[in-house]
Amino acid sequence: MTRTSSSSARVAVSTVIFTLRADADGAGLMLPLVRRTRDPYAARWALPGGWLDVAEGLDAAASRTLAETTGLAPSYLEQLYAFGDVDRSPTRVVSIVYWALLRQDEVDAQLAAHAEHGDAPDNVQWFDADALPDLAFDHAQIIAYALWRLRNKVGYSRIAHGLLPDEFTLADLREVYESILGRRLDPANFRRQAEASGTLIPTERFRTGSHRPARLYRYNRDVELAERGPLSASP
Amino acid sequence: MTRTSSSSARVAVSTVIFTLRADADGAGLMLPLVRRTRDPYAARWALPGGWLDVAEGLDAAASRTLAETTGLAPSYLEQLYAFGDVDRSPTRVVSIVYWALLRQDEVDAQLAAHAEHGDAPDNVQWFDADALPDLAFDHAQIIAYALWRLRNKVGYSRIAHGLLPDEFTLADLREVYESILGRRLDPANFRRQAEASGTLIPTERFRTGSHRPARLYRYNRDVELAERGPLSASP
Prior knowledge:
Helix content of chain A: 25-40%
Oligomer: homodimer
Structural class of chain A: alpha+beta
Number of strands of chain A: 9
């Protein structure tokens, strides 16, 4: 092997952050990308990330590199998958990829705080998950996998926690699901499934307005958010 | 950092293989462990594994190191989680952990073939998942996480494929679930859930015997076995 300077792989971490941005055209999933300033793939867009430091754990490295590149600090990051194909980079790199859901108001508040302190991140731009630019490395494949996981394997509780305020109606939750899945859902079926999931707790409060009052729900904090089971006991 | 010989982490792979061994006392989950022959943790039991070679992908490294240490070759290995706490080893090691389910008859056939060729693996022993010896590194935590995933997140199709023959009755499938979960399940509820899962296909064949004929099912091969979504398209 002459193409690497080392006899083994280097470990990097990257993070996929999804938020839901609502505008006049409806709501859509967005994620932040960082423009690379050096080779390989100089000037291409890439997931926020960086090298694992020898003195930090994987979770800590993901949080640090995300904060350094984007200024974002989600309340939790979940490990998604380790990518380690031999040819994914000119040198041998294994990337441990994390992901998180972040509410738009949290994104706005965190970025406003950075702007106020004059340390707004450079080279970051938010993209529609369905209209990504050319990406560095295998990051297009990584984002496709993260979207698939989000669309197939993320339950009511996690979506509610990650993308909705503390209290929400079932219609709010359904609209978030519809944005993620890109299709309409039957309201009665959705209500039945959401109520049967055991992950949402009805409150005694209702939202009133032009329609009939809609009950507000909150998510059940007893349900494992990151679904790490016994790993959750780790420091 | 003086305690590591390198300025970065080294990448290892390890694999947790579950099989279901039935005997007079019932059925139980078993897994193979390898006795370490050198420090750290010399003479302790550890998961089968080894170092990632710079010229091989993660999946290939998992298959190779599993075959080298145990002689086993599952039809698929699924990535479970990357473990990278700073203090999990005297030097800095990130372990990409894989797992698989293997039927007892597959284990027996593979080990018999090795014995016939005089290359039976050394230092390997199968342990009851509920009665493990003292383990090296954080391997007890890794196995606890794998058991939690198996008990909580593995669907009917995967269990059927991994631990049952090609055709099986719903009673066979329920017995496997009962062994994994360590508790009895209501037959009528189990039947309803399994039939509604969309992952089992009823055949027109029945098992006859002392009870009334029981329909044989096979698993639906269209369901993603390893649940990797778009990653399944990778070579």
